[in-house]
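Hey, can you fold this one?
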Amino acid sequence: MTKDLVYVIPAGKYGKEEILNLLTNHPEIKFASLVGIDLAGNDTDEKIPIGLFMEDMENFYDGSAVQTDGSSVVLTGIATLNNAKLDMLADASVNWFVDYNYEHIDEETGKPVGTLRIPAFLVHDGLRVDSRSILAQSMEYIKAEIKALFQNNSKIAGLEHINAADVDDILFTAATELEFWVKTPANKAEVEELSASQVLQEQYWQRTRGNVRTAMEQAILMMAKYGLEPEMGHKEVGGVKAQIDETGHLNHVMEQLEIDWKFSNALQCADNELQARIIVKEAFRANGLEVTFKAKPIIGVAGSGEHTHVGIAAKLKSGKVVNLFSPSDMKQYFLSAIGYGAIMGLLKHYEVINPFISSTNDSLNRLKPGFEAPVCIVTSLGHTPAVPSRNRTILAGLVRDVNNPMATRFEVRSPNPYTNTYIAITAIYMSMLDGIKAAVNSGKTIAELDAELSKEAGQEGFYLETERAYRSEHDVFDDYSAEERNRLFGKPPATVWENMQNIEKYPEKVKTLTIGGSFRPELVKAFVAGALVRWKTELLNRIIPENLGVVKEAVLLHNADCASDLDLSNWDKINALRVGLAKDCLSQKCIFTRIKEAIQAGDYDTASALQIEMSDKVNELKVLYREYKKNMIHC
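Sure. Predicted structure:
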Protein backbone atom coordinates (compact mmCIF):
# COMPACT_ATOMS: atom_id res chain seq x y z
CA MET A 1 0.00 0.00 0.00
CA THR A 2 2.78 2.41 0.86
CA LYS A 3 5.20 1.38 -1.88
CA ASP A 4 6.19 3.99 -4.44
CA LEU A 5 4.85 6.87 -2.38
CA VAL A 6 6.47 10.28 -2.79
CA TYR A 7 7.33 11.78 0.58
CA VAL A 8 9.45 14.79 -0.31
CA ILE A 9 10.09 17.02 -3.31
CA PRO A 10 13.63 18.31 -2.72
CA ALA A 11 14.34 22.01 -3.12
CA GLY A 12 15.56 22.84 -6.59
CA LYS A 13 15.20 19.32 -7.91
CA TYR A 14 11.94 19.82 -9.80
CA GLY A 15 10.78 22.62 -12.04
CA LYS A 16 7.13 23.40 -12.57
CA GLU A 17 6.73 20.94 -15.44
CA GLU A 18 8.45 18.18 -13.50
CA ILE A 19 6.15 18.75 -10.52
CA LEU A 20 3.10 18.58 -12.78
CA ASN A 21 4.35 15.29 -14.24
CA LEU A 22 5.05 13.89 -10.77
CA LEU A 23 1.56 14.79 -9.55
CA THR A 24 0.01 13.27 -12.67
CA ASN A 25 1.88 10.03 -12.00
CA HIS A 26 0.84 9.98 -8.34
CA PRO A 27 -2.95 10.40 -8.31
CA GLU A 28 -3.03 9.44 -4.61
CA ILE A 29 -1.87 13.02 -3.90
CA LYS A 30 -5.32 14.57 -3.82
CA PHE A 31 -4.70 17.95 -2.20
CA ALA A 32 -2.23 20.80 -1.96
CA SER A 33 -1.82 23.01 1.09
CA LEU A 34 0.16 26.24 1.38
CA VAL A 35 1.89 26.29 4.78
CA GLY A 36 2.36 29.79 6.14
CA ILE A 37 3.63 30.38 9.68
CA ASP A 38 2.10 33.16 11.77
CA LEU A 39 3.97 35.06 14.49
CA ALA A 40 3.02 32.50 17.16
CA GLY A 41 4.47 29.64 15.09
CA ASN A 42 1.09 28.24 14.00
CA ASP A 43 0.98 26.72 10.51
CA THR A 44 -1.87 26.98 8.04
CA ASP A 45 -3.37 23.86 6.46
CA GLU A 46 -6.00 24.33 3.79
CA LYS A 47 -7.14 21.54 1.46
CA ILE A 48 -6.92 22.64 -2.20
CA PRO A 49 -7.93 19.96 -4.72
CA ILE A 50 -4.79 18.96 -6.59
CA GLY A 51 -6.46 19.49 -9.95
CA LEU A 52 -7.07 23.14 -9.14
CA PHE A 53 -3.46 23.51 -8.02
CA MET A 54 -2.19 21.98 -11.27
CA GLU A 55 -4.43 24.19 -13.42
CA ASP A 56 -3.38 27.39 -11.64
CA MET A 57 0.18 26.51 -10.65
CA GLU A 58 1.80 29.68 -12.02
CA ASN A 59 -0.29 31.84 -9.71
CA PHE A 60 0.72 29.83 -6.65
CA TYR A 61 4.27 31.01 -7.21
CA ASP A 62 3.40 34.70 -7.51
CA GLY A 63 0.99 34.71 -4.57
CA SER A 64 -2.19 35.48 -6.49
CA ALA A 65 -3.77 32.04 -6.30
CA VAL A 66 -4.57 31.73 -2.61
CA GLN A 67 -5.77 34.28 -0.11
CA THR A 68 -6.63 33.76 3.53
CA ASP A 69 -8.16 35.63 6.44
CA GLY A 70 -5.26 37.09 8.40
CA SER A 71 -7.46 38.12 11.31
CA SER A 72 -7.84 34.43 12.14
CA VAL A 73 -4.12 33.87 12.65
CA VAL A 74 -1.65 35.56 15.01
CA LEU A 75 -0.70 38.75 13.20
CA THR A 76 -1.93 41.02 15.97
CA GLY A 77 -2.41 44.64 14.87
CA ILE A 78 -1.33 43.85 11.30
CA ALA A 79 -4.12 41.82 9.73
CA THR A 80 -7.13 43.51 11.34
CA LEU A 81 -10.81 42.84 10.74
CA ASN A 82 -11.09 45.76 8.31
CA ASN A 83 -7.84 44.86 6.51
CA ALA A 84 -7.45 41.12 6.93
CA LYS A 85 -6.60 39.76 3.48
CA LEU A 86 -3.34 37.83 3.18
CA ASP A 87 -1.79 36.54 -0.03
CA MET A 88 0.06 33.23 0.20
CA LEU A 89 3.24 32.87 -1.84
CA ALA A 90 4.74 29.39 -2.44
CA ASP A 91 8.41 28.99 -1.49
CA ALA A 92 10.32 26.86 -3.99
CA SER A 93 13.67 27.27 -2.15
CA VAL A 94 12.94 24.54 0.42
CA ASN A 95 11.69 20.95 0.48
CA TRP A 96 8.01 20.24 -0.05
CA PHE A 97 6.54 17.35 1.95
CA VAL A 98 3.60 15.06 1.21
CA ASP A 99 1.45 14.39 4.27
CA TYR A 100 -0.40 11.05 4.00
CA ASN A 101 -3.64 10.12 5.73
CA TYR A 102 -3.20 6.41 6.44
CA GLU A 103 -6.81 6.19 7.62
CA HIS A 104 -8.13 7.37 4.24
CA ILE A 105 -7.30 4.98 1.40
CA ASP A 106 -7.80 6.09 -2.20
CA GLU A 107 -10.12 3.58 -3.87
CA GLU A 108 -8.44 3.79 -7.29
CA THR A 109 -4.80 3.42 -6.24
CA GLY A 110 -5.16 1.56 -2.94
CA LYS A 111 -2.78 4.08 -1.42
CA PRO A 112 -3.30 6.59 1.40
CA VAL A 113 -4.58 9.99 0.33
CA GLY A 114 -1.80 12.58 0.32
CA THR A 115 -1.63 16.34 0.74
CA LEU A 116 1.29 18.22 -0.80
CA ARG A 117 2.36 20.70 1.92
CA ILE A 118 4.06 23.68 0.28
CA PRO A 119 5.91 26.10 2.60
CA ALA A 120 4.71 29.63 1.89
CA PHE A 121 5.16 33.28 2.74
CA LEU A 122 2.29 35.49 3.94
CA VAL A 123 1.96 38.89 2.27
CA HIS A 124 -0.10 41.77 3.67
CA ASP A 125 -0.37 45.12 1.87
CA GLY A 126 2.59 44.15 -0.28
CA LEU A 127 4.90 43.25 2.63
CA ARG A 128 5.81 39.83 3.99
CA VAL A 129 4.60 39.47 7.57
CA ASP A 130 5.12 35.82 8.49
CA SER A 131 7.71 33.96 10.55
CA ARG A 132 9.25 32.19 7.56
CA SER A 133 9.82 35.51 5.79
CA ILE A 134 11.43 37.04 8.85
CA LEU A 135 13.96 34.21 8.98
CA ALA A 136 14.60 33.96 5.23
CA GLN A 137 15.13 37.70 4.74
CA SER A 138 17.23 38.04 7.90
CA MET A 139 19.59 35.32 6.72
CA GLU A 140 20.14 37.17 3.45
CA TYR A 141 20.98 40.35 5.35
CA ILE A 142 23.39 38.58 7.70
CA LYS A 143 25.06 36.82 4.78
CA ALA A 144 25.73 40.15 3.06
CA GLU A 145 27.10 41.70 6.27
CA ILE A 146 29.52 38.84 6.94
CA LYS A 147 30.69 38.89 3.34
CA ALA A 148 31.38 42.61 3.78
CA LEU A 149 33.46 41.86 6.89
CA PHE A 150 35.70 39.61 4.83
CA GLN A 151 35.95 42.20 2.08
CA ASN A 152 37.01 44.86 4.60
CA ASN A 153 39.34 42.64 6.65
CA SER A 154 41.94 40.68 4.70
CA LYS A 155 42.66 38.60 7.81
CA ILE A 156 40.39 37.81 10.76
CA ALA A 157 41.83 36.64 14.07
CA GLY A 158 41.72 32.87 14.30
CA LEU A 159 40.83 32.55 10.63
CA GLU A 160 44.26 33.29 9.18
CA HIS A 161 43.92 30.12 7.08
CA ILE A 162 41.12 31.76 5.08
CA ASN A 163 41.88 34.21 2.29
CA ALA A 164 39.08 36.77 2.35
CA ALA A 165 39.09 37.01 -1.44
CA ASP A 166 38.30 33.28 -1.66
CA VAL A 167 34.99 33.52 0.28
CA ASP A 168 32.14 32.80 -2.12
CA ASP A 169 29.14 32.23 0.15
CA ILE A 170 28.09 32.18 3.81
CA LEU A 171 26.19 29.15 5.12
CA PHE A 172 24.03 28.96 8.23
CA THR A 173 23.61 25.53 9.81
CA ALA A 174 20.97 24.84 12.45
CA ALA A 175 19.41 21.86 14.17
CA THR A 176 16.88 21.27 16.94
CA GLU A 177 16.45 18.38 19.38
CA LEU A 178 12.82 17.45 19.98
CA GLU A 179 11.81 16.32 23.48
CA PHE A 180 8.24 15.29 24.30
CA TRP A 181 6.09 13.40 26.78
CA VAL A 182 4.00 10.41 25.75
CA LYS A 183 1.24 8.70 27.72
CA THR A 184 -1.68 6.37 27.38
CA PRO A 185 -4.98 8.30 27.30
CA ALA A 186 -6.61 9.01 30.67
CA ASN A 187 -3.60 7.76 32.63
CA LYS A 188 -2.17 10.06 35.27
CA ALA A 189 0.96 9.48 37.31
CA GLU A 190 1.52 11.06 40.70
CA VAL A 191 4.10 13.84 40.81
CA GLU A 192 5.97 12.12 43.66
CA GLU A 193 6.26 8.92 41.63
CA LEU A 194 7.61 10.81 38.61
CA SER A 195 9.92 12.92 40.75
CA ALA A 196 11.35 9.89 42.56
CA SER A 197 12.01 8.12 39.26
CA GLN A 198 13.82 11.21 37.99
CA VAL A 199 15.99 11.55 41.10
CA LEU A 200 16.82 7.84 40.98
CA GLN A 201 17.76 8.23 37.30
CA GLU A 202 15.64 5.24 36.35
CA GLN A 203 14.52 6.41 32.91
CA TYR A 204 17.30 8.19 31.00
CA TRP A 205 18.45 6.12 27.99
CA GLN A 206 16.50 3.10 29.22
CA ARG A 207 15.18 0.57 26.71
CA THR A 208 11.79 1.45 25.27
CA ARG A 209 9.13 -1.26 25.31
CA GLY A 210 5.81 -2.20 23.75
CA ASN A 211 3.83 0.36 21.78
CA VAL A 212 6.22 3.15 22.85
CA ARG A 213 9.09 1.31 21.19
CA THR A 214 6.99 0.60 18.11
CA ALA A 215 5.89 4.20 17.76
CA MET A 216 9.43 5.50 18.29
CA GLU A 217 10.83 3.14 15.63
CA GLN A 218 8.04 4.00 13.19
CA ALA A 219 8.61 7.73 13.70
CA ILE A 220 12.36 7.42 13.09
CA LEU A 221 11.85 5.30 9.96
CA MET A 222 9.24 7.73 8.64
CA MET A 223 11.52 10.72 9.26
CA ALA A 224 14.13 9.01 7.07
CA LYS A 225 11.59 8.71 4.25
CA TYR A 226 11.05 12.47 4.45
CA GLY A 227 14.78 13.12 4.16
CA LEU A 228 15.18 14.42 7.72
CA GLU A 229 18.09 12.01 8.32
CA PRO A 230 17.28 10.97 11.91
CA GLU A 231 20.31 10.43 14.11
CA MET A 232 18.92 9.12 17.39
CA GLY A 233 15.83 8.38 19.43
CA HIS A 234 15.99 7.67 23.15
CA LYS A 235 14.27 8.01 26.50
CA GLU A 236 14.78 11.21 28.45
CA VAL A 237 14.95 11.73 32.23
CA GLY A 238 11.21 11.95 32.92
CA GLY A 239 8.77 9.07 33.30
CA VAL A 240 7.77 6.00 35.27
CA LYS A 241 7.82 2.29 34.50
CA ALA A 242 4.77 1.19 32.53
CA GLN A 243 2.48 -1.61 33.73
CA ILE A 244 1.30 -4.75 31.94
CA ASP A 245 -2.45 -5.41 31.83
CA GLU A 246 -4.19 -8.79 31.77
CA THR A 247 -3.92 -8.96 27.96
CA GLY A 248 -0.15 -8.53 28.05
CA HIS A 249 -0.23 -5.00 26.73
CA LEU A 250 1.44 -2.01 28.39
CA ASN A 251 -0.71 0.59 30.08
CA HIS A 252 -0.06 3.43 32.50
CA VAL A 253 2.56 4.69 30.05
CA MET A 254 4.10 8.02 31.12
CA GLU A 255 7.47 8.60 29.49
CA GLN A 256 9.65 11.41 28.20
CA LEU A 257 11.42 10.83 24.88
CA GLU A 258 13.75 12.64 22.49
CA ILE A 259 14.35 12.37 18.75
CA ASP A 260 17.21 14.11 16.91
CA TRP A 261 17.88 14.54 13.22
CA LYS A 262 20.59 16.05 11.04
CA PHE A 263 21.23 19.76 10.73
CA SER A 264 20.08 21.82 7.73
CA ASN A 265 20.23 25.42 6.62
CA ALA A 266 18.35 27.73 8.97
CA LEU A 267 15.04 27.91 7.06
CA GLN A 268 14.97 24.21 6.19
CA CYS A 269 15.76 23.39 9.83
CA ALA A 270 12.61 25.16 11.02
CA ASP A 271 10.49 23.55 8.28
CA ASN A 272 11.91 20.12 9.17
CA GLU A 273 11.01 20.58 12.83
CA LEU A 274 7.40 21.26 11.89
CA GLN A 275 7.30 18.07 9.81
CA ALA A 276 9.01 16.07 12.57
CA ARG A 277 6.31 17.07 15.07
CA ILE A 278 3.62 15.90 12.63
CA ILE A 279 5.37 12.57 12.12
CA VAL A 280 5.85 11.99 15.85
CA LYS A 281 2.25 12.83 16.75
CA GLU A 282 0.80 10.59 14.02
CA ALA A 283 3.12 7.64 14.79
CA PHE A 284 2.27 7.63 18.48
CA ARG A 285 -1.45 8.29 17.90
CA ALA A 286 -1.58 5.30 15.57
CA ASN A 287 -0.28 3.22 18.49
CA GLY A 288 -2.89 4.47 20.95
CA LEU A 289 -0.63 7.01 22.67
CA GLU A 290 -0.96 10.72 23.32
CA VAL A 291 1.95 13.11 22.74
CA THR A 292 2.44 16.55 24.22
CA PHE A 293 5.10 19.03 23.18
CA LYS A 294 4.36 21.33 26.11
CA ALA A 295 7.47 22.71 27.81
CA LYS A 296 6.24 21.81 31.30
CA PRO A 297 3.29 19.43 31.12
CA ILE A 298 3.74 18.34 34.75
CA ILE A 299 4.80 20.91 37.34
CA GLY A 300 7.53 19.51 39.59
CA VAL A 301 8.91 17.08 36.99
CA ALA A 302 11.43 17.56 34.16
CA GLY A 303 10.11 19.66 31.32
CA SER A 304 10.78 19.30 27.61
CA GLY A 305 13.36 21.44 25.88
CA GLU A 306 14.33 21.79 22.27
CA HIS A 307 18.01 22.62 22.33
CA THR A 308 18.85 24.63 19.23
CA HIS A 309 22.28 24.30 17.59
CA VAL A 310 23.56 27.12 15.39
CA GLY A 311 26.72 27.50 13.32
CA ILE A 312 28.15 29.62 10.51
CA ALA A 313 30.41 28.42 7.69
CA ALA A 314 31.99 29.88 4.57
CA LYS A 315 31.97 28.23 1.18
CA LEU A 316 35.15 29.07 -0.69
CA LYS A 317 35.43 29.52 -4.43
CA SER A 318 37.21 26.17 -4.54
CA GLY A 319 34.06 24.52 -3.17
CA LYS A 320 35.63 23.83 0.21
CA VAL A 321 33.46 24.61 3.28
CA VAL A 322 35.13 26.11 6.36
CA ASN A 323 33.56 26.50 9.81
CA LEU A 324 33.85 30.19 10.75
CA PHE A 325 33.54 29.50 14.49
CA SER A 326 36.59 27.20 14.49
CA PRO A 327 40.06 28.74 14.98
CA SER A 328 42.97 27.76 12.77
CA ASP A 329 44.59 26.06 15.78
CA MET A 330 41.90 23.96 17.51
CA LYS A 331 44.32 22.77 20.22
CA GLN A 332 45.38 26.27 21.30
CA TYR A 333 42.15 28.26 21.02
CA PHE A 334 38.46 27.69 21.68
CA LEU A 335 37.09 29.92 18.90
CA SER A 336 37.87 32.31 16.10
CA ALA A 337 37.06 36.02 16.35
CA ILE A 338 33.75 35.28 14.60
CA GLY A 339 32.98 32.56 17.14
CA TYR A 340 33.77 34.80 20.11
CA GLY A 341 31.74 37.62 18.59
CA ALA A 342 28.77 35.32 18.01
CA ILE A 343 28.49 34.15 21.62
CA MET A 344 29.11 37.66 22.99
CA GLY A 345 26.39 39.09 20.78
CA LEU A 346 23.93 36.41 21.87
CA LEU A 347 24.61 36.92 25.58
CA LYS A 348 24.66 40.72 25.46
CA HIS A 349 21.24 40.86 23.79
CA TYR A 350 19.55 37.89 25.40
CA GLU A 351 17.08 40.01 27.40
CA VAL A 352 15.38 40.89 24.10
CA ILE A 353 15.88 37.45 22.54
CA ASN A 354 14.18 35.61 25.41
CA PRO A 355 10.72 37.11 24.67
CA PHE A 356 10.78 35.37 21.29
CA ILE A 357 11.97 32.06 22.78
CA SER A 358 9.85 31.99 25.95
CA SER A 359 6.58 33.72 25.09
CA THR A 360 4.08 31.56 26.99
CA ASN A 361 3.17 30.65 30.56
CA ASP A 362 4.14 27.07 29.75
CA SER A 363 7.63 28.03 28.53
CA LEU A 364 8.40 30.01 31.70
CA ASN A 365 7.11 27.18 33.90
CA ARG A 366 10.02 25.12 32.53
CA LEU A 367 12.67 27.76 33.18
CA LYS A 368 13.02 27.21 36.92
CA PRO A 369 16.20 26.33 38.87
CA GLY A 370 16.70 22.66 39.63
CA PHE A 371 15.62 20.94 36.40
CA GLU A 372 18.68 21.55 34.18
CA ALA A 373 16.71 24.28 32.39
CA PRO A 374 18.72 27.46 31.74
CA VAL A 375 17.74 30.56 33.70
CA CYS A 376 21.07 32.44 33.62
CA ILE A 377 22.53 34.46 30.76
CA VAL A 378 25.92 32.75 30.79
CA THR A 379 28.05 30.48 28.62
CA SER A 380 30.63 27.75 29.11
CA LEU A 381 33.50 27.02 26.72
CA GLY A 382 35.36 24.36 28.68
CA HIS A 383 38.37 24.39 30.99
CA THR A 384 40.84 24.03 28.11
CA PRO A 385 40.46 23.83 24.30
CA ALA A 386 41.32 20.14 24.52
CA VAL A 387 38.50 19.43 27.01
CA PRO A 388 35.05 20.34 25.60
CA SER A 389 32.46 21.91 27.86
CA ARG A 390 30.02 19.52 29.54
CA ASN A 391 28.22 22.18 31.58
CA ARG A 392 24.45 21.60 31.35
CA THR A 393 23.49 24.51 33.61
CA ILE A 394 24.27 27.38 31.24
CA LEU A 395 22.19 29.15 28.60
CA ALA A 396 24.38 28.54 25.56
CA GLY A 397 27.31 26.16 25.46
CA LEU A 398 30.14 25.63 23.01
CA VAL A 399 30.05 22.27 21.24
CA ARG A 400 33.35 21.34 19.60
CA ASP A 401 35.60 18.43 18.69
CA VAL A 402 39.31 19.23 18.64
CA ASN A 403 39.74 16.74 15.79
CA ASN A 404 36.78 17.95 13.73
CA PRO A 405 36.65 21.74 13.12
CA MET A 406 33.37 21.38 11.20
CA ALA A 407 31.56 20.31 14.39
CA THR A 408 32.04 23.64 16.21
CA ARG A 409 28.72 25.28 17.07
CA PHE A 410 26.71 26.75 19.92
CA GLU A 411 23.86 24.93 21.65
CA VAL A 412 21.19 27.30 22.94
CA ARG A 413 19.37 25.40 25.67
CA SER A 414 16.39 27.66 26.44
CA PRO A 415 14.00 26.91 23.52
CA ASN A 416 11.17 24.43 24.01
CA PRO A 417 9.17 22.34 21.51
CA TYR A 418 6.59 25.10 21.05
CA THR A 419 9.12 27.91 20.63
CA ASN A 420 8.63 29.61 17.26
CA THR A 421 11.89 28.30 15.79
CA TYR A 422 11.74 30.63 12.77
CA ILE A 423 11.77 33.77 14.91
CA ALA A 424 14.02 32.30 17.61
CA ILE A 425 16.74 31.47 15.07
CA THR A 426 16.32 34.93 13.55
CA ALA A 427 16.86 36.62 16.92
CA ILE A 428 19.83 34.38 17.73
CA TYR A 429 21.65 35.02 14.46
CA MET A 430 20.85 38.75 14.36
CA SER A 431 22.29 39.21 17.84
CA MET A 432 25.31 37.12 16.89
CA LEU A 433 25.91 39.37 13.89
CA ASP A 434 26.22 42.41 16.17
CA GLY A 435 28.85 40.67 18.27
CA ILE A 436 30.67 39.34 15.22
CA LYS A 437 30.98 42.82 13.73
CA ALA A 438 32.20 44.23 17.05
CA ALA A 439 34.79 41.48 17.53
CA VAL A 440 36.18 41.55 13.98
CA ASN A 441 36.22 45.34 13.65
CA SER A 442 37.92 45.71 17.04
CA GLY A 443 41.06 44.12 15.62
CA LYS A 444 41.60 42.32 18.91
CA THR A 445 43.50 39.06 19.22
CA ILE A 446 41.91 35.75 20.18
CA ALA A 447 43.42 36.08 23.67
CA GLU A 448 41.89 39.55 24.08
CA LEU A 449 38.48 38.34 22.93
CA ASP A 450 38.67 35.39 25.33
CA ALA A 451 39.47 37.84 28.15
CA GLU A 452 36.43 39.95 27.18
CA LEU A 453 34.07 36.97 27.34
CA SER A 454 35.69 35.73 30.58
CA LYS A 455 35.77 39.08 32.41
CA GLU A 456 34.55 39.43 36.00
CA ALA A 457 31.42 41.41 36.87
CA GLY A 458 32.45 45.03 37.42
CA GLN A 459 35.29 44.82 34.92
CA GLU A 460 34.87 47.13 31.95
CA GLY A 461 34.95 45.60 28.49
CA PHE A 462 35.01 47.00 24.97
CA TYR A 463 31.66 45.35 24.10
CA LEU A 464 30.08 43.48 26.99
CA GLU A 465 28.35 45.28 29.86
CA THR A 466 30.50 46.23 32.83
CA GLU A 467 28.30 45.03 35.69
CA ARG A 468 27.77 41.53 34.33
CA ALA A 469 29.74 38.28 34.00
CA TYR A 470 29.15 36.12 30.94
CA ARG A 471 31.17 32.93 31.31
CA SER A 472 31.29 30.27 34.00
CA GLU A 473 32.70 26.77 34.08
CA HIS A 474 30.84 26.10 37.36
CA ASP A 475 27.42 24.63 38.10
CA VAL A 476 25.46 27.88 38.22
CA PHE A 477 22.80 26.33 40.47
CA ASP A 478 25.02 24.63 43.05
CA ASP A 479 28.00 26.98 43.08
CA TYR A 480 26.11 30.28 43.26
CA SER A 481 23.27 31.49 45.45
CA ALA A 482 20.14 32.88 43.80
CA GLU A 483 21.28 36.38 44.75
CA GLU A 484 24.71 35.79 43.18
CA ARG A 485 23.16 34.42 40.00
CA ASN A 486 20.88 37.41 39.64
CA ARG A 487 23.72 39.86 40.25
CA LEU A 488 26.21 38.20 37.91
CA PHE A 489 23.99 36.95 35.12
CA GLY A 490 20.75 38.94 35.40
CA LYS A 491 17.43 38.14 37.05
CA PRO A 492 15.28 35.91 34.81
CA PRO A 493 11.67 36.90 34.06
CA ALA A 494 9.03 34.98 35.99
CA THR A 495 5.99 35.81 33.83
CA VAL A 496 5.21 36.52 30.20
CA TRP A 497 4.54 40.15 31.12
CA GLU A 498 7.97 40.53 32.72
CA ASN A 499 9.61 38.94 29.70
CA MET A 500 7.80 41.13 27.16
CA GLN A 501 8.61 44.26 29.15
CA ASN A 502 12.26 43.76 28.20
CA ILE A 503 11.34 44.85 24.67
CA GLU A 504 10.38 48.25 26.11
CA LYS A 505 13.22 48.30 28.62
CA TYR A 506 16.07 47.70 26.15
CA PRO A 507 15.25 49.63 22.93
CA GLU A 508 18.91 49.73 21.82
CA LYS A 509 19.13 45.96 22.03
CA VAL A 510 15.91 45.60 20.04
CA LYS A 511 17.48 47.69 17.25
CA THR A 512 20.06 44.93 16.85
CA LEU A 513 17.23 42.56 15.87
CA THR A 514 15.40 44.97 13.57
CA ILE A 515 18.37 46.39 11.66
CA GLY A 516 18.30 45.40 8.01
CA GLY A 517 14.54 45.69 7.66
CA SER A 518 13.63 42.00 7.87
CA PHE A 519 12.35 41.78 11.44
CA ARG A 520 10.63 45.14 11.23
CA PRO A 521 9.59 47.03 14.42
CA GLU A 522 5.92 46.57 13.57
CA LEU A 523 6.46 42.79 13.45
CA VAL A 524 8.21 42.88 16.85
CA LYS A 525 5.28 44.89 18.20
CA ALA A 526 2.78 42.43 16.70
CA PHE A 527 4.61 39.45 18.20
CA VAL A 528 4.58 41.03 21.66
CA ALA A 529 0.94 42.06 21.38
CA GLY A 530 -0.07 38.54 20.38
CA ALA A 531 1.92 37.00 23.22
CA LEU A 532 0.26 39.29 25.76
CA VAL A 533 -3.23 38.52 24.43
CA ARG A 534 -2.50 34.81 24.87
CA TRP A 535 -1.00 35.43 28.33
CA LYS A 536 -4.08 37.27 29.58
CA THR A 537 -6.52 34.84 27.97
CA GLU A 538 -4.80 31.76 29.31
CA LEU A 539 -4.42 33.26 32.77
CA LEU A 540 -8.12 34.09 33.02
CA ASN A 541 -9.65 31.14 31.19
CA ARG A 542 -7.29 28.24 31.86
CA ILE A 543 -4.85 28.80 34.70
CA ILE A 544 -7.27 30.30 37.23
CA PRO A 545 -9.99 27.65 36.50
CA GLU A 546 -7.38 24.87 36.79
CA ASN A 547 -6.14 26.28 40.08
CA LEU A 548 -9.72 26.60 41.29
CA GLY A 549 -10.04 22.88 40.63
CA VAL A 550 -7.00 22.27 42.86
CA VAL A 551 -8.63 24.34 45.60
CA LYS A 552 -11.94 22.46 45.34
CA GLU A 553 -10.21 19.06 45.42
CA ALA A 554 -8.47 19.93 48.69
CA VAL A 555 -11.38 18.84 50.89
CA LEU A 556 -11.60 18.03 54.58
CA LEU A 557 -10.78 14.35 55.21
CA HIS A 558 -10.49 13.94 58.97
CA ASN A 559 -13.11 13.80 61.68
CA ALA A 560 -12.96 14.72 65.34
CA ASP A 561 -12.48 11.12 66.50
CA CYS A 562 -9.31 10.33 64.56
CA ALA A 563 -7.71 13.71 63.83
CA SER A 564 -4.24 14.25 65.25
CA ASP A 565 -2.84 17.62 66.21
CA LEU A 566 -0.78 17.45 63.00
CA ASP A 567 -3.94 16.89 60.93
CA LEU A 568 -5.60 19.89 62.54
CA SER A 569 -2.55 22.07 62.02
CA ASN A 570 -2.16 21.01 58.39
CA TRP A 571 -5.83 21.57 57.65
CA ASP A 572 -5.73 25.08 59.11
CA LYS A 573 -2.85 25.92 56.77
CA ILE A 574 -4.59 24.28 53.82
CA ASN A 575 -7.85 26.09 54.41
CA ALA A 576 -6.09 29.43 54.83
CA LEU A 577 -4.50 28.91 51.43
CA ARG A 578 -7.82 27.89 49.89
CA VAL A 579 -9.55 30.99 51.21
CA GLY A 580 -6.72 33.32 50.21
CA LEU A 581 -6.71 31.93 46.70
CA ALA A 582 -10.39 31.53 45.90
CA LYS A 583 -12.82 33.05 48.43
CA ASP A 584 -13.73 36.72 48.57
CA CYS A 585 -14.52 38.33 51.91
CA LEU A 586 -15.86 41.77 52.79
CA SER A 587 -12.44 42.86 54.00
CA GLN A 588 -10.28 41.17 51.35
CA LYS A 589 -10.75 39.84 47.83
CA CYS A 590 -9.04 36.59 46.90
CA ILE A 591 -6.06 36.33 44.59
CA PHE A 592 -8.14 34.94 41.72
CA THR A 593 -10.48 37.93 41.83
CA ARG A 594 -7.65 40.43 42.19
CA ILE A 595 -5.91 39.01 39.09
CA LYS A 596 -9.12 39.31 37.07
CA GLU A 597 -9.68 42.88 38.20
CA ALA A 598 -6.07 43.87 37.50
CA ILE A 599 -6.27 42.53 33.94
CA GLN A 600 -9.60 44.22 33.33
CA ALA A 601 -8.08 47.50 34.54
CA GLY A 602 -4.99 47.07 32.36
CA ASP A 603 -2.75 46.94 35.45
CA TYR A 604 -0.48 44.21 34.13
CA ASP A 605 2.31 44.85 36.63
CA THR A 606 -0.09 43.92 39.43
CA ALA A 607 -1.55 40.99 37.50
CA SER A 608 1.97 39.66 36.87
CA ALA A 609 2.98 39.98 40.53
CA LEU A 610 -0.26 38.26 41.62
CA GLN A 611 0.35 35.44 39.11
CA ILE A 612 3.67 34.72 40.80
CA GLU A 613 2.03 34.80 44.24
CA MET A 614 -0.79 32.54 43.01
CA SER A 615 1.66 30.01 41.59
CA ASP A 616 3.63 29.87 44.84
CA LYS A 617 0.51 29.42 46.95
CA VAL A 618 -1.01 26.75 44.69
CA ASN A 619 2.23 24.77 44.77
CA GLU A 620 2.33 25.12 48.57
CA LEU A 621 -1.29 23.95 48.74
CA LYS A 622 -0.53 20.86 46.64
CA VAL A 623 2.41 19.87 48.83
CA LEU A 624 0.52 20.42 52.09
CA TYR A 625 -2.53 18.53 50.90
CA ARG A 626 -0.45 15.52 49.79
CA GLU A 627 1.12 15.38 53.26
CA TYR A 628 -2.29 15.77 54.88
CA LYS A 629 -3.77 12.90 52.81
CA LYS A 630 -0.86 10.61 53.62
CA ASN A 631 -1.52 10.97 57.34
CA MET A 632 -5.15 9.89 57.07
CA ILE A 633 -6.12 6.53 58.57
CA HIS A 634 -9.50 4.89 58.94
CA CYS A 635 -10.76 5.04 62.50
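Residues 521-553 form the longest helix (33 residues). Let me know if you want another pass with a different chain boundary.
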